[in-house]
Design goal:
The complex is a heterodimer of chains A (314) and B (292).
Chain A: H1 3-10, H2 26-39, H3 45-72, H4 77-82, H5 94-135, H6 138-153, H7 156-169, H8 177-199, H9 204-212, H10 217-228, H11 230-246, H12 249-253, H13 263-273, H14 278-298, H15 300-308
Chain B: H1 2-34, E1 37-38, E2 47-48, H2 52-59, H3 61-94, H4 98-113, H5 116-127, H6 133-140, H7 157-181, H8 186-194, H9 199-210, H10 212-228, H11 231-236, H12 248-258, H13 262-290
Antiparallel strand pairs in B: 1-2
Classes of the chains: A mainly alpha (314), B mainly alpha (292).
Chain lengths: 314, 292
């Protein structure tokens, strides 16, 4: 993937939120919308019906299990078993309290700590690195870019065992750092590439003007580059948070103690402890899923921007 | 003064590069080295065993099962995600109004933001033999005797595991495509339609060529995802029953952290890396030569 693809893709797509229909990419879409009734009717309305049916079935296949998870989290185990389809006869809100008390609260807090530190660390280091890259000579900057892009090719699975020994040797195994440091390292390439592509478009005149005004180099970063790159910074942060919140492999291998487990790993021991208490287990699953779903709901366009950048799935 | 500012610039780049070097590149190199040793998870010594681990890879029947499962994963994922996702995206952008299209693609995308642990544990409820949602549904529509233990049955376990991955990922790839398809100028479709091209011809002659780059990205994502997959089989089946749902990553984890054969596990990790690297190179080359 070339840098220009990433640069284009990293602009928040105008179509993802209704309010910002100002970019040029919107014009064809608007034209298409207006003309569709006349150009799209080749006696093919009958054609559309099976398509609508397929799309509706697909939507139900996705939505129903999630809906079922939420509804059943208010039921007792016996009721989930006896009447899987119905609404709860009594809504057991207590399932949530019990799930929270029986471990989820701790995992939740750990996930928040690991996610926040990883996200701040990744975005800060990536912004500094991207800033360094635009200041370096063209050739040196490209060497750094190639190193970052190469990092995208390496799957975390491949590093599992050497990293285990490295963390063991440095005494970091079984600490928050055993998750945070690898998360930052594996998300940095994505964040650097995204942020650099936007930094490249910052005009040289603005930078020179700031220097004439007496800004030293860190102030130039803070007052010129960062304000102009807000949306890409949020995109990088959202993608890192998404990765850190959901990461599973490192979290189960590098952390033994329940006291610092994050939600994805903690849910496994939660499940083992609650093998028969289905309602409570489902309540735990809902609590685990909720924050990232809310982040998605509110910051959807940044998710979409990140998705469009392509190679960023965890 | 200039020397000092260059030093400062290097300091900006250094922390990020140091972390990537230490936690991404060093383990990659070390892993190849480890493949020639025998050692355990504790602090014990490493014994050089030459090509023993590599030879074992070729004679280990579980490796064949695992590799077969990874290939199956890749094939199914290409069909559902790369092909199916493109068709769904085309429908969403061409047939539905803007609002409806936006709602549906968000619904489809939703599973992609939820942790695989949550999804996999939810699907254990669906696949349960007794009281499972799938069997209850089959009963409901009148398919009797459907008390299959989907995840415990040798015949259905792999299919069940792969279907969970599709459930999570098709919407993600669809979203990628939607973003790409929205950039296609409407004039291209109008021109094709004036030339008498129907829906299907328009899809082949306009949508597919215009979305070529995204199809390429989707291929890389799904195929490399298929060869590194870990979470779904690990949480749903732990590679069982027997070793029927073992994939390379779960087998590596099993050998390293349960059998305590870290050297052999490293050799398996090297296989995963070589496969993903080869796939990236093949796809990159074929993409480059296919361009213009």
């Amino acid at each position: 993937m070339s840098a220009s693809d990433i640069r284009e893709a990293s602009l928040p797509p105008s179509t993802s939120s209704a309010g910002t229909a100002t970019t040029s990419a919107d014009a064809p879409a608007a034209v298409r919308m207006r003309r569709r009734p006349t150009s799209g009717t080749e006696g093919s309305v009958a054609w559309n019906i099976p398509v609508y049916v397929i799309l509706a079935i697909y939507a139900i296949l996705i939505a129903y299990p999630l809906f079922w998870m939420v509804i059943s989290s208010f039921k007792s185990s016996t009721e989930i078993y006896a009447d899987p389809w119905g609404l709860p006869s009594t809504w057991l809100v207590g399932n949530y309290a019990e799930a929270w008390d029986r471990g989820i609260s701790e995992y939740f807090l750990n996930s928040v700590i690991v996610t926040v530190v990883s996200t701040i660390g990744t975005v800060t280091l990536a912004a500094l690195c991207a800033y360094g890259m635009v200041r370096l000579s063209h050739r040196t900057g490209n060497v750094v870019l190639v190193l970052a892009m190469g990092g995208l090719v390496v799957a975390p699975q491949v590093s599992l065992i050497p990293l285990y020994r490295l963390l063991d040797a440095t005494g970091l195994l079984n600490t928050y750092w055993a998750m945070i440091l690898p998360y930052v390292a594996f998300r940095l390439p994505m964040a650097i590439i995204l942020i650099r592509s936007v930094f490249l478009s910052v005009s040289k005149e603005l930078v020179d003007a700031a220097i004439i005004d007496g800004c030293h180099s860190l102030q130039v970063l803070r007052h010129v580059y960062l304000p102009l790159s807000r949306s890409v910074l949020v995109t990088a942060a959202v993608l890192t948070a998404y990765f850190a919140w959901n990461e599973f492999l490192f979290a189960i291998v590098y952390v033994d103690s329940d006291a610092i487990r994050t939600i994805p790993a903690g849910l496994m021991s939660f499940r083992d402890a609650l093998s028969t208490d289905w309602g409570v287990l489902l309540a735990g699953l809902v609590i685990a899923a909720l924050p990232i779903v809310l982040v998605f709901a509110f910051l959807q366009r940044y998710f979409v921007a990140g998705v469009a950048a392509g190679s960023v799935k965890g | 003064m200039i020397a000092r500012s260059r030093l400062v610039t290097v300091l900006y780049v250094l922390p990020a590069l140091a972390l990537i070097g230490l936690f991404v590149y060093y383990p990659l190199v070390a892993n190849f080295g480890y493949s020639f040793f025998r050692f355990s998870a504790g602090a014990g010594d490493m014994t050089f065993v030459g090509l023993d681990n590599i030879e074992r890879l070729f004679s280990d029947p579980v490796i064949r099962t695992a590799l077969g499962n990874n290939v199956l994963y890749a094939v199914v994922s290409i069909l559902f995600q790369v092909v199916g996702g493109l068709i769904v995206a085309a429908w969403l952008t061409r047939l539905l109004g803007r609002r409806m299209g936006a709602i549906l693609r968000s619904v489809y995308f939703l599973p992609a933001v939820i942790s695989m642990t949550v999804i996999a544990l939810l699907f254990t409820f669906i696949f349960n033999a007794r009281g499972g949602l799938l069997n209850a549904f089959l009963d409901l529509i009148g398919i009797d005797g459907a008390s299959t233990a989907w995840l415990a049955d040798v015949d259905t376990a792999m299919g069940a595991v792969i279907s969970v991955s599709q459930w999570q990922s098709v919407g993600y790839i669809t979203m990628l495509y939607v973003v790409a398809l929205q950039q296609i100028p409407a004039e291209l479709y109008e021109a094709a339609s004036i030339d008498g091209a129907g829906r299907i011809r328009q899809f082949w002659n306009v949508t597919v060529p215009q979305a070529k780059e995204m199809i390429f990205v989707a291929m890389i994502l799904t195929v490399s995802g298929a060869f590194t997959v870990f979470n779904e089989p690990y949480i749903l089946t732990r590679g069982g029953p027997g070793n029927t749902t073992q994939v390379l990553a779960t087998y590596m984890y099993n050998q390293g952290f349960f059998q305590n054969q870290m050297g052999y596990a490293s050799a398996i990790a090297s296989v995963i890396f070589v496969i993903t690297l080869l796939l990236s190179i093949v796809q990159l080359v074929s993409f480059r030569s296919g361009k213009d």
